[in-house]
Design brief:
Elements (H helix, E strand, L loop, with lengths): L1 H30 L1 H8 L15 H26 L4 H21 L3 H29 L5 H5 L1 H16 L5 H22 L4 H6 L3 H12 L5 H15 L5 H4 L3 H18 L3 H6 L1 H8 L8 H23 L1 H27 L10 H17 L2 H8 L6 H30 L1 H22 L8 H9 L1
Length: about 450
């Protein structure tokens, strides 16, 4: 029995890790600008392929262009899901990311880099709108939360690689390096990981669904689980796919409210603005730690917190981790705002020069221990198979629209209100997020898809 369990765990872990190579690449894309924007601001043609410092507008759009792509990706993904499985969509989704990096190898104009960032966003948006559901469907009830945290871990490792490699390589060299994980994903995931059994049942391919389960569980005794998958899909098929009809269903409305609310509060941390401008923020904060080193520390903290969270999520549950993370986020953001408020008003901050790195370390730890992964995990859990494509798309779009607005508004908020009040605003949002989470979010830890559906309807 012990040997069989080891085999089961071994392959399902491999499948989750292989799948999560997509988010390694998206993690690279999300923080790509942190070490690259300073290169674009340089007059050194060896560092800056554009040949001149970029304007403020060009810099803002190079950062924000990815969020435009993020809004396009989920729409393309849901259209593709009408004709193909989630596995196929994930394989297609890395294409724009790949072409984005290839474009960066040869680009020498700001517009080309903006185009490349849009491509990265399209691929990343498609990946995140499908990935959580795919992993939820190949996992078991007992380890769904743990495996669902793998994409977040991979994303943070990808971000860390940017902080470590980006400052010390030229843009074209850095772009070549980022092609490697995409090729590795296509080879391992494409040839070795099966389609989701839920996808196959939806398409009437019961034999292939059984083979998929046998491979995922590494046992021939999958009859009971296959029947459960069939029952779950059958229950989902009873729902009409027309959105006008879906919105009348109590379970769908409640699930959509929960998932979109979690996504909105995830972005109201200001996470994308912080990681996009991390090196710039540290330059403004002072030289307690070199600006090129500080983001590396944040990357290590983020990855460590994801690893810790992956062990806790199936023990502590989603509600406690998310609400606790919101409170920790609020504390760190208020402290960071206090530092910049004093700095911008000409007050002495030498005695608290450690506050920016400490606050942002707590910020990253809190985000990745709950806010970063739980919205995606919950989205993969609370919808029936029939409505998951449209529900996941709406949920992902809510995330990416808010992230676009924050990235666009962030420089203007700093200009008109100052760095301190800007971080205080995000801190207040986190206090509100904790309250809303405690009131709204049901606990899905250890529950089957059918149990979660019944919970939402009641």
């Amino acid at each position: 029995m012990g040997q069989r369990d080891t085999k089961v765990k071994g392959f399902i872990y491999f499948a989750a890790i292989s799948t999560s190579l997509t988010t390694f690449s998206t993690g690279v894309c999300f923080v790509w600008t942190s070490p690259i924007i300073p290169k674009f601001q340089s007059e050194d043609v060896e560092l800056n392929p554009i040949g001149r410092p970029v304007t403020i507008t060009e810099s803002a759009w190079i950062v924000a262009a990815m969020t435009l792509g993020l809004m396009i990706g989920p729409i393309l993904a849901v259209l593709a899901l009408r004709f193909s499985t989630k596995k196929t969509v994930l394989l297609l989704a890395v294409g724009p990311i790949l072409f984005g990096h290839i474009t960066c190898i040869f680009a020498n104009k700001a517009n080309l880099f903006i185009f490349a960032r849009i491509l990265m966003g399209i691929g990343s948006g498609a990946v995140w709108s499908v990935l959580g559901t795919f992993i939820a469907e190949i996992a078991e009830n007992k380890n769904r939360g743990f495996l669902g945290s793998f994409p977040g871990i991979a994303s943070n490792i990808g971000s860390l690689s940017v902080y470590v490699i980006g400052p010390y390589t030229k843009i074209w060299q850095f772009s070549i390096v980022q092609i490697v994980p995409i090729i590795l994903f296509c080879m391992t995931f494409g040839f070795l990981v099966p389609d989701s059994p839920y996808d196959l049942i939806v398409r009437g391919k019961s034999d292939l669904a059984e083979k998929s389960l046998k491979k995922l569980r590494q046992t021939d005794k999958v009859g009971k689980e296959l029947l459960f998958v069939q029952e779950t899909v059958q229950r989902g098929n009873e729902c009409k796919i027309q959105f006008a009809e879906l919105i009348k269903d109590r379970g769908f409305r409640k699930g959509l409210t929960i998932s979109t609310t979690l996504m909105i509060f995830q972005q109201l941390t200001g996470i994308l603005a912080v990681v996009s401008y991390a090196e710039t923020i540290f330059r403004l904060a002072g030289d307690f730690i070199p600006p090129s080193i500080s983001p590396m520390i944040l990357g290590v903290v983020a990855t460590t917190s994801q690893l810790i969270s992956s062990k806790l999520i199936d023990k502590m549950g989603r509600k406690m981790l998310f609400s606790g993370a919101c409170i920790s986020e609020a504390i760190s953001l208020f402290a960071l705002g206090f530092y910049f408020f004093r700095l911008n008003h000409g007050l002495d901050v030498s005695a608290i020069s450690w506050v920016p790195i400490a606050s942002l370390a707590i910020f990253m730890f809190s985000f990745n221990s709950g806010l970063g992964n739980i919205p995606w995990i919950v989205t993969g859990e609370i919808f029936s198979s029939k409505v998951k494509p449209i529900a996941s798309t709406i949920t992902a779009l809510s995330n990416f629209i808010v992230s676009f607005l924050i990235v666009i508004c962030f420089p203007y908020m700093i200009e008109y209100f100052g760095m301190g009040p800007t971080f205080w605003f995000f801190g207040c949002c986190m206090v509100l997020g904790a309250i809303v989470c405690i009131w709204l979010l049901p606990e899905t830890k250890g529950k089957s898809f059918l149990e979660i559906q019944d919970l939402l309807k009641n």
